[in-house]
Amino acid sequence: MKIAWIFPVKKRCGISIYSHYYVKTLEKLIDIDIFDTEQCLNAIKKYSSILNQYDIIHIQYETSFFLKKNSKKYRNLCRQISNPVIVSLHEVYDTFPGIFPKTSLKGRGIVHKVREIIYDIRHPYQTVYTQHSAHNFYADLLIAHLRQHKTILTQNGIKENKIQIIPLPVNILKSINFPCFMDQGVINLGSSGFISANYNHSLLFDILDSLKSQWRFTWIGGIRRDEDNQILEYINQEIRKRNWQDKFIVTGWLEDEKRDILLEKIDIYLALFSARSSSASLAAALGARRLVIATPLPLTREMTEEEKMMCIVPADKNAVIENIELLVSDKQLRQKYLSELEIYIGKYSYKAMSQKLVEIYKGLIV
Fold it and tell me: How is the beta sheet containing 187-192 ordered, strand by strand?
């Protein structure tokens, strides 16, 4: 069984990191080769011929990879592949966060049609996703991370038997530096990943403004897209306004090793998402065995259905502060979360998820 994985091999993004971890584990179980998304799209005839020599072609899908001319290239590449294609979806939304839904457009007849055309031009990301979704993403099988994702996909017309659920894997760090709150009486708070509108930054500043304990906050990461520069500027303005330059740090992009070192210095990881479909940064925090306080989303609720390894609280300043103080003061509570976390990361490690993925591969080529 020979498998081809297509993903942005050298891109600084969560999907690239995730894919490299997966391939490193999968190559111990099967024959697997990697191909860069952009290279495949720019030489479809060449790469489709090569890819057709593999039993299964597994594509990591993120709409931003396939915007503009790449949308048709993606379609054409998939159509040139004669063997089974699996597509992993990492962002699945019923209604895209922060965007006025197309279904709410007013008007009738030609007026409504014109408004739809204008909407599609102004929202290329959503337009491309909808176009690909209407064609089952040109896949024989889709892989999603949550049951909620499967529900959304089936409501959009994709057959249930064409979707498999594999939760986002966790990369378990070998070293264990458990949170201890002993660093000169300061609580080390933090978060990680790309800075975006999907994180509730205003709530974070409200919390830090009102927290009575001494604290430091580290954001491990930076921006990925130019349009998120305004969010980073907002964060920097709020830091300067409060004179927090020495206690609120934004690191910018870091390689995995440096990121993991900083993760292990965080006592409490604040996953204050306003919207999120999946989160490699949260998975990394769990793999580093961090205590996590998270806002309630379908993502965090579904992740904690069996193992209560995160503290899920309302997106409310007082609720978050109360739970920070509880985690600091109650050693038994900390141990409870960490014990549940050990079970969770063992169940959803890259090794465990790779074994499940191999079984899916086998089932598809029988």
Answer: 248-250, 215-220, 187-192, 268-271, 291-294, 311-312
Q: Read off the tokens for 222.
A: 């930076």
- For 2-168+350-365, CATH number out of 3.40.50.2000, 3.30.1330.60, 3.30.450.20, 3.30.1360.180 equals 3.40.50.2000
- For domain 187-347, which CATH number applies: 3.10.560.10, 1.25.10.10, 3.30.750.24, 3.40.50.2000? 3.40.50.2000
Q: What is the DSSP letter of 141?
A: E
CA distance 110 to 114: 6
- pLDDT score, position 129: 80
Give yes or no for a contact between 51 and 40, defined as CB atoms under 8 angstroms apart.
yes
CA distances from 38 to 8, 64, 65, 125, 137 (A): 7, 12, 8, 17, 17
Structure tokens at 341: 């976390």
Mean pLDDT per block of 10 residues along the chain (366 residues) reads 93 85 95 94 93 96 73 88 95 70 60 55 68 89 95 92 95 70 78 92 96 94 83 95 96 86 92 90 93 95 95 96 93 93 95 96 86
CA proximity to 35, closest of 76, 142, 352, 44 = 44
**pLDDT for the residue 123:** 56
In the DSSP assignment, the letter for residue 145 is S
E-strand ranges in the chain read 2-7, 31-36, 56-61, 85-89, 141-144, 163-165, 187-192, 215-220, 248-250, 268-271, 291-294, 311-312
